[in-house]
Amino acid sequence: MLWTLALGICSALPNSIHDDHLPQFADRRQTVESLSSHLLGLIQDNLSSTTLATRDSELRQVINNNAKALNDIGKQIDSAPETRRTALVCKAGQLIYGSRAVTPQQPTYEEEKQENWSTTCWLPAACFLNVRNALEVSIALGLVVFTQTPFAVRSGGHNPSPGFGSIDQSGVLIDLGAMDSAWISADKSIASVGPGATWENIYDYVEQHQLTVAGGRAAGVGAGGLVLGGGMSHFSNHWGLVCDNVKNFEVVLANSTIVQANSKSHLDLFKALKGGGPNFGIVTRFDLHTYPDYRVWYNYKVYNTSNVKRVMQATIEVQKAMETNDKIGFFLNQGVGTLTAGLVYREWTTFPAAFRAFDGIPVLLDAIPATNGTQASFSPALYVRTRGANDQTYRFEIGALTIKPDVQLYQDLQLVLQQIVGNSNLNLGFTYQPLGAPAARQGQAKSSNAVNIRPEPQSWLALVAQWTDSADDQAARSKLRELISRIESTARSRGLLLPFQFQNDASYSQSPLRSYGADSLAHLKTVAGKYDPRQVFQKLQSSGFLVSRA
Ligand SMILES: Cc1cc2nc3c(=O)[nH]c(=O)nc-3n(C[C@H](O)[C@H](O)[C@H](O)COP(=O)(O)OP(=O)(O)OC[C@H]3O[C@@H](n4cnc5c(N)ncnc54)[C@H](O)[C@@H]3O)c2cc1C
C-alpha cells in the first residue's frame, strides 16, 4: 500500500468539523429513473450539505460522459441473475473509477486479493474499488446500494476474520487503502488521518512535529478497523482507548451523505463510532488529538517458560504499578516454550524502576535491547508478518477474553496452552494486555465510548493461531476454540473471568458488541437504526461485528 504524506502543514482541517447538517434519508432510487442521475444526485447532495473540499467536477464529468452505459447497466441490474449482477456492478465501477476498479482480468487483481494480512482472507471479490476520497466512497456506496450488491470495506486489511475486510465473488470490496494521507492542523493539536493509513506511517509523520497520537502498537495495521474497534495503544491507562482520542470522524452514511461526527454535531453517532465497529457508515477521516510525549523507552525480553512463576509474579507487580503510574506500558506474550515481555515507558530513561520486578530473572534473549526511541521506531518490531522466511504465507485466527490479574491463574494458563498444543506443530499462543481503572475513567472523561470498560485491573487476552496449510484449517480452528473455552472455564471457576471481549482481537464466533453490556448494545442498535434505517450495513455488508447479529 502506498503511503503519501501531505506536504507541510495544512492551514485548516480539510473539512469543517462543525457540520450540523442532518442527514436526509430520502430513498432516492424511487424518485429517479437512471443510475447516472442517481449518482449525480448523490454528488449534489454532498455539495449542498457539507463544506467538502470538492473533487466533484472530475467525478461528475466521468459520470456524465458514461451516462448512457451506466444507465444501460442500471436497467439490466434488476432482471440480471446474481452472478451477472456483480459483473455489471464492476463494469459500472470501471466506467467511474477506470483501472482503479480491479476485476479478475486485470494484472493487479492478485495483488489486491493478497493485500489482507491473513491468507484466510485472500478472497476473490468480483472487483476491488480503489477509492481515493470521501466523495468517491459516497459514490461507491451509492452504486452498491442502488444495485443491492453485497460489499465489504477494507482499510488496513489486518482483521483475520474472512469476510470482514474481504469478500468473495458474490460482492465488491471497497478498498480504502489509498486513503492513507495525514495532515496536521495549523496549531498542531489535531492530526487528520485517512482510514488506510498505517500506524508506523502515522507516527512517523506526527513525530516530525515532535508529537504523537494514541494509536496501534504494530506497524502495518490500518487506522480504520483499529479505531472503530476501540483500539488499544501502549498507554491505555494514560490516554484511554484509541477511540477516546478522536475529536471528529468524517463518515459516509448509508444514504451516501458525508457527515462530521463530533461532540457538537451528531453526538450519538460520535459516541457509537467509538468502539461500535462498522455499523453506522464508512469512516473516511479520523481527526486525532496530538500529544507531546512522543519519546518512548522500550525493551523486549524473552524468557524460558521454566521461569513462568517468576515472570508471572513480575507481571502482576507491573500490573499493580500501572494503576497509579500511567507512564507504564506492558504486554506479555505466552507461547508454548517462551514468554516475551514488552516493557514500554512513556519517556526517555534508563531502565525504569517500574520494571525492577523483572530483575534477576534469567533472560533467554534481549530481543530488542533497552532503547530510547519512539512509537515509529518500535512499531515495526511488533509486526507479525504474513510471509515467512521461505516465502510461505500464514493463516491466522484469533479470539479475545478478559481475565482479572492473578499469579496462579496466569501460571496455570501456561499449562493449559501446553496441553492443548500437545505434539502438534501448530503455533498457538496468547498475549496478556493489561489495563485498568484509569483507562475506564479516561473513556468516561472524554465524552464516553461504546466499549464500557469496567473500572478495575484486568488483562485483555488476545489469542492467536498461526499455520500455513489450508488443509489444517479445521484442526487449527478447533485448537484455538478449545484454548478459548479452557481459559474461559478455568478463569470462570475461580471467579476471575470478566465478560468483556475486545473487538479488535475477537473471533467472528464471539460477540464483542454484546459483551459491552445490554445498555450499550441497545444504544448502538438505536444509533444504527437512526443513521441507517434501510439496514444497508446490516444486510448488504458481508460481515463484521454487526449489531443485528450481536
Ligand atoms: C500484527 C497486528 C497487530 C495488532 N495490534 C493492535 C494493537 O496494538 N491495538 C489494537 O487495538 N488492535 C491491534 N490489532 C488488531 C487490529 O486493530 C484489528 O485487526 C483491526 O480490525 C485492523 O484494522 P484494519 O483497518 O487493518 O483492518 P480491516 O481488515 O481493513 O478492517 C477490519 C474491520 O473494520 C471494518 N472497517 C475498516 N475500516 C473501516 C472504515 N473506514 N469504516 C467502516 N468500517 C471499516 C472492516 O469492514 C472490517 O470489518 C493488531 C492486529 C494485527 C494483525
Structure notes:
This protein has 550 residues and is α+β, with helices and mostly antiparallel strands. It has 3 domains: 28-175, Uridine Diphospho-n-acetylenolpyruvylglucosamine Reductase, domain 2; 182-292 and 518-549, Uridine Diphospho-n-acetylenolpyruvylglucosamine Reductase, domain 3; 296-516, Vanillyl-alcohol Oxidase, Chain A, domain 3, CATH 3.40.462.20. Helix content is 33%, strand content 19%. It has 18 helices and 17 strands. The chain has helices at residues 35-49, 56-65, 67-77, 82-97, 109-113, 134-146, 199-207, 223-228, 236-239, 267-273, 308-322, 375-378, 407-421, 437-445, 473-493, 512-515, 518-531, 536-539; strands at 101-102, 127-130, 151-154, 172-175, 182-184, 190-193, 246-252, 258-262, 282-289, 296-304, 328-334, 338-345, 365-373, 395-403, 427-435, 458-467, 497-498. The protein has an 8-stranded antiparallel sheet. Strands 5-6-9-7-8 form a 5-stranded antiparallel sheet. The protein has a 4-stranded mixed sheet with strand order 1-2-4-3. Strand 7 and strand 8 (258-262) form a beta hairpin. Helix 1 runs antiparallel to helix 6. The chain is globular, with a radius of gyration of 23 Å. Bound molecules: flavin-adenine dinucleotide (FAD). Flavin-adenine dinucleotide (FAD) binds next to strand 3, helix 8 and strand 9. Residues 117, 152-159, 164-165, 176, 195, 216-218, 221-222, 224-226, 228-229, 231-232, 278, 282-283, 383-384, 504, 544 line the site of flavin-adenine dinucleotide (FAD).
